[in-house]
Amino acid sequence: MRLLHTYYRAALLIGLLSVVLAGGSGESVAAAPAPKLVSAGDLTLHGRHPDENWTTPTMAGTRLKAQPPLVAEKDDRPTFTREMVSVGWRPFDTFQLYVVKPKGVAKPPVVLYLYDYKNDTKRFLSDDYCERLTRSGCAAVGFESALSADRFQMRPMRQWFVSELPEALATSAHDVQMVLNYLSTRGDLDMGRVGMFGQGSGASIAILAAGADPRIKALDLLNPWGDWPAWLQKSAVIPTADRPRFTQAAFTKSVAPLDPVAWLPRLAGRKVRLIQVKDDPVTPAVCQAALIKAAPGGAQIVQYDTNLAVYGALGHGRLFSWLGARVKAAGP
After folding, report:
1. Long-range contacts made by residues 126-133, C-beta under 8 angstroms, separation at least 24?
2. How many Å apart are CA 330 and CA 332, to the nearest integer?
3. How many Å apart are CA 332 and CA 329, to the nearest integer?
4. pTM to 2 decimals?
5. Residue 115 region, left (φ>0) first, then alpha (ψ -120 to 50), else beta?
């Protein structure tokens, strides 16, 4: 995006310079036309990217080609190393992937971290946070979901994660699988033991991605969204003025194939922990109940009354120990 803006400014300056020079010579020279900025909307075809299927978290009908990854930065700390890798497989959607590896482990297992759409990846720049993530001996890989934070670019302001929910969910689930493909090429990670932690919308994406990709052996899900008909009707995420738009039959139908309630049962045989906060206004009680009902047999269900109770029980890195232990114990 910065490159396009730089090009736009350069073209504008050249155009102005040509006018000035023409005025000085007495000749009439037309200013150079400003380049047309291509938006992400121009790359879609009837609401679908021509190379990507937004109706499923699987890669069926999706033809994404990864750009060569670029290691932008590498940090060496006493207990871990951290790489910031630029990756991408769509026009105008290159994003940063943080790969944090514990020292002293030749090929560590991998845990992907995907937070809610309102969160960015700045936490991965914190040495204390990265130390907590890698304390279990697993590598930590973090990134942002589609239409989130730094990845919300070149879109009309009226668009946001929920207004484009089918796109946001499907493309992010595809991202998870493309990230796993990239990690498999590195040779320094144990890709036979992979887990994923998700929070909020990130937990919903984790469910979809794991349902589509058996490489994910264990999941830790904190307050996932789901049960779309009820969620769109009741969630506090949606402004009251916008709710009628998202409860129309056409919208609910478009997101129905991507409901975590439908994909959770497909995780039978995986290690799953579902953590819910009862007073969470984002995912109402009726939706929480639907997610519990859909959870596969053997899933661990944990409920807390408040976020403060969650912090008291799982703060200071204790949240990450459950998943780390399950991933390390997973078979190939």
Report:
1. 127/77, 130/77, 130/80, 130/82, 130/100, 131/77, 131/79, 131/80, 132/316, 132/317, 132/320, 133/100, 133/317, 133/320
2. 7
3. 10
4. 0.84
5. beta
Rounded Cα distance, 37 and 40, in Å: 10
* Domain locations in the chain as residue ranges: 67-329
Greatest Cα pair distance, the chain, in angstroms, is 83
Architecture of domain 67-329: 3-Layer(aba) Sandwich (3.40)
In terms of DSSP bridges, do strands 216-222 and 194-199 run parallel, antiparallel, or are they unpaired?
A: parallel
> Could you tell me which of 67, 151, 136 has the C-alpha nearest to residue 105?
136
Give 33's DSSP letter. P
Per-residue pLDDT of the chain (332 residues; tens, 9 = 90+): 333 333 333 333 333 333 333 333 333 334 433 333 333 343 343 345 678 999 999 999 899 999 999 999 999 999 999 999 999 998 888 999 999 999 999 999 999 999 999 999 999 999 999 999 999 999 999 999 998 878 877 777 788 999 999 999 999 999 999 999 999 999 999 999 999 999 999 999 999 999 999 999 999 999 999 999 999 999 999 999 999 999 999 999 999 999 999 999 999 999 999 999 999 999 999 999 999 999 999 999 999 999 899 988 988 888 999 999 999 998 76
User: Rounded to whole angstroms, how far apart are CA atoms 325 and 320?
Assistant: 9
Q: What gap in Å lies between CA 98 and CA 169, rounded to an integer?
A: 21
- CA 112 to each of CA 33, 285, 291, 323, 325: distance values in angstroms, whole numbers, following the listed order: 45, 27, 22, 10, 14
Q: Two tokens at 235? A: 């969630």
Structural element, H or E, at residue 96: strand 95-102
